[in-house]
Amino acid sequence: xxxRIARPASTLVRSLSTSSQHNAKVAVLGASGGIxxxxxxxxxxxxxxxELSLYDIAHTPGVAADLxxxxxxxxVTGYMGADQLGAALKGCEVVVIPAGVPRKPGxxxxxxxxxxxxxxxxxxxxxxxxxxxxxxCIISNPVNSTIPITSEVMKKHGVYNPNRVxxxxxxxxxxxxxxxxxxxxLDPARVNVPVVGGHxxxxxxxxxxxxxxxxxxxxxxxSALTGRIQEAGTEVVKAKAGAGSATLSMxxxxxxxxxxxxxxxxxxxxVVECAFVRSEETECKYFSTPLLLGKNGIEKNLxxxxxxxxxxxxxxxxxxxxxxxxxxxxDFVANMK
Length: 337
Prior knowledge:
Layout: E1 25-29, H1 36-44, E2 51-56, H2 60-68, E3 75-80, H3 85-89, E4 94-97, H4 113-130, E5 135-138, H5 143-156, E6 165-167, H6 170-184, E7 195-197, E8 204-206, H7 219-230, H8 232-240, H9 248-265, E9 272-278, E10 286-294, E11 297-301, H10 309-334
Parallel strand pairs: 1-2, 1-4, 2-3, 4-5, 5-6
Antiparallel strand pairs: 7-8, 9-10, 10-11
């Protein structure tokens, strides 16, 4: 009756996967959590993924068994506990890390630092040992600090490649696209707003002046729109009233970034995504800008480009906070026992 609707639903808007079939082993670390489960579902649904390796400290065998019944080709294996982490990572080409604790009302992303810093350091240490060539995509907050942590841990093992370590800021772009589309009556799938800077509060800098298609807003509306994009995560935290933070939209954004990366690794040309990476574009060591992705990760950093006076001010105002968050991550690894 329903003609097997949208099987295998391989065009989840935009490029949430392509129709071409490739073989990639992808690991999700933190696969049983609020982001990890829907992210794993989206990855299982993609023809770009041939093996899905799911790791967490609890419940992973159940999540893996559940997903393994879905009629798509990716094989799914669950791994649980520290003693199985190495096996989970063996042979992985892409590792996506949403592990950690979520925000609750009244918390900033930085309040998550102590718990999530340790988790990210532990998991990236295992990546350095078991899949040093893999693309590492960090979702765990605060991304402004967890990316420096990841980089420093990889350096300690002598396997750091800045072109293969990404802070996933895609949700900021997804939100910017959605909010602009709502205000202008556009199809959000056809809107693209680059978002630069970092991934917390005022370090999130949407470049509305570079939006395609071109849009214009009066100053007060532009200011309100920018503020909403910057605080959109808090909007969800408040709406969930203590039951967590953005999980479903984050899973969508994490899948979108992963599929773009896999497309580029498979030789697709012209794949561009923003991500928080090691950068020479500003005075900050790490900064999110549009990146041309390729077979080996970042092919070219496309930089900030031409921006408005309003956006220039936002960039200037973000610098101190961004530098502080970066240093906090670096210091954490320097002081690790």
